[in-house]
């Protein structure tokens, strides 16, 4: 005896029903395998997702329009939630996936008809979607004919099948980390414009940047610093020996640090190279690192470029001043610095190029009387934006606000971490009080950034 049960289910927001055949006394071919479960009486309370039933799809088109052909259908073992199971979970004999069709004799002398081949591959994946193709030809007794010789619609040559999502077994995962101390290392480069127009600014700079060094000392940073000028014709991006010392690199352990810093900037002075090339000096400093090591492996990179003009005075813009215009070379462009830094350090290096420049027309009017004309630092600000550094105004009477902003940029540590796979549901994020973690796809973002030495863990479930 044959029973037909109609299974209805909701998949991806679409409600659909499919008939499923069950034998109570045998299979489709008259066998004697009993159906172990045809009503609710043998299903345990709460269901049993380990017991399978055969779900059969609708038959496809017949391979022949007459004279006997075959057609196939999809047969999948599923549980009561319509999720695919291995075939051995279905105790009932598997229904046939093919059957005979159009067994009637073909009329003699008739016109051409569609000759339909078997689907390839013959079996679709049980879930996740697949595509099957077949050959469809218009034929008569003499062979293949043009498609327009067949008077009926051409059967499809391609179909998708079993598009329902595959079930997965969620795996519990735990990510535990301590923010490494390398994130607390910062290597700093100061690039000072030593042209004639910078005399008054450099006197002020010695005092204002001295406060910046004090801020670094008051924070738990493993920092070191080099200094050079925008005069690449003389210094070629090499670090200058700090005044009163024999070293090109100072750090928090340097004796009389404030005095050394202030005296060095005062000794740099002004009135020397009038071809300001702060970007090129920064590029050359990176390339000089094997000989003059200012930058350590694993440390963040931060620089401060100070100038009252743009790269090569007018940033390559001849319309600003034909007299002071100089063509920009490859090493004068912000993108060249970024590419060089990636080549020297690797793409994961944390970088922030900060600039104290003429930021607007009002500041330019204030700077012009000091000597040669000032120009807005377009290229320097472009580089700061590329590296997410700070931009200060050289006309400000107090640099402390801008320098504090630079310090905050330098202090950035771990802002996010990527998980192995996209979590199912909300993860459990264990971080210190005062910090938050937000899930974004496979990434957890921290706000504010986690400082060096911070321990955190994230527990989540996902399908690998």
Structural key phrases:
464 residues, 3 domains, alpha+beta, elongated, 3-stranded antiparallel beta sheet, Rossmann fold, 28% strand
How would you portray this structure in words?
The protein has 464 residues and is an alpha+beta fold. The protein folds into three domains: 2-161, no CATH class; 184-412, von Willebrand factor, type A domain (Rossmann fold, 3-Layer(aba) Sandwich); 415-462, no CATH class. 17% of the residues lie in helices and 28% in strands. The chain has helices spanning 199-217, 257-268, 278-287, 334-345, 361-367, 378-386, 400-410, and strands at 2-11, 14-23, 53-56, 69-72, 75-78, 98-101, 113-116, 130-133, 136-140, 143-145, 158-161, 171-178, 185-192, 222-229, 250-251, 300-306, 351-357, 391-393, 414-418, 428-430, 436-440, 443-450, 455-462. It has a six-stranded mixed β-sheet, sandwiched between helices. A three-stranded antiparallel β-sheet has the order 7-9-10, with no helix packed on it. Helix 4 links the parallel strand 16 (300-306) and strand 17. Helix 4 packs parallel to helix 6 (378-386). The protein starts with a strand and ends with a strand.
């Amino acid at each position: 005896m044959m029973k037909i049960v109609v299974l209805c289910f909701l998949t991806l927001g679409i409600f659909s029903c499919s008939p499923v055949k069950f034998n109570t006394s045998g299979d489709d071919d008259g066998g004697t395998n009993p159906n172990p479960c045809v009503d609710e009486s043998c299903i345990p309370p709460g269901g049993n997702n380990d017991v399978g039933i055969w779900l059969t799809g609708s038959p496809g088109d017949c391979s022949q329009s007459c004279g006997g052909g075959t057609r196939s259908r999809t047969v999948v073992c599923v549980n009561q939630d319509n999720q695919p199971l291995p075939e051995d979970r279905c105790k009932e004999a598997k229904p046939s996936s093919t059957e005979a069709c159009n067994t009637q004799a073909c009329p003699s002398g008739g016109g051409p008809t569609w000759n339909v081949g078997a689907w390839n591959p013959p079996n679709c994946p049980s879930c996740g979607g697949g595509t099957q193709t077949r050959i469809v030809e218009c034929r008569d007794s003499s062979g293949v004919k043009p498609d327009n010789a067949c008077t009926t619609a051409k059967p499809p040559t391609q179909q998708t099948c079993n598009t329902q999502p595959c079930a997965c077994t969620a795996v519990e995962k735990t990510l535990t980390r301590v923010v490494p101390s390398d994130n607390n290392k910062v290597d700093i480069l100061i690039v000072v414009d030593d042209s004639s127009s910078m005399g008054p600014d450099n006197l002020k700079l010695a005092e204002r940047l001295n406060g910046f060094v004090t801020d670094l000392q008051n924070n738990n940073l493993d920092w070191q610093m080099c200094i050079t000028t925008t005069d690449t014709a003389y210094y070629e991006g090499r670090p200058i020996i700090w005044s009163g010392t024999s070293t090109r690199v100072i750090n928090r352990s340097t004796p009389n640090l404030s005095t050394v810093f202030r005296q060095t900037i005062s000794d740099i002075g002004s009135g020397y190279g009038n071809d300001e090339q702060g970007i090129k000096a920064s590029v050359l400093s990176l390339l000089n690192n094997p000989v003059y090591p200012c930058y350590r492996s694993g440390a963040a990179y931060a620089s401060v470029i100070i100038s009252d003009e743009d790269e090569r005075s007018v940033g390559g813009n001849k319309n600003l001043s034909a007299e002071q215009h100089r063509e920009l070379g490859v090493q004068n462009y912000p993108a060249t610095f970024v590419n060089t830094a990636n080549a020297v350090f690797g793409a994961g290096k944390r970088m922030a190029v900060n600039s104290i420049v003429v930021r607007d027309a009002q500041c330019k009017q204030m700077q012009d009387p000091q000597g040669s004309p000032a120009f807005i630092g377009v290229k320097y600000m472009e580089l700061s934006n590329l590296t997410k550094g700070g931009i200060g105004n050289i006309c400000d009477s107090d640099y402390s606000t801008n320098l504090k902003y630079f310090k905050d940029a330098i202090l950035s540590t771990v802002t996010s971490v990527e998980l192995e796979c996209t979590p199912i549901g909300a993860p459990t994020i264990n971080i210190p009080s005062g910090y938050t973690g937000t899930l974004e796809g496979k990434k957890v973002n921290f706000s504010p950034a986690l400082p060096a030495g911070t321990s955190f863990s994230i527990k989540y479930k996902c399908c690998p």
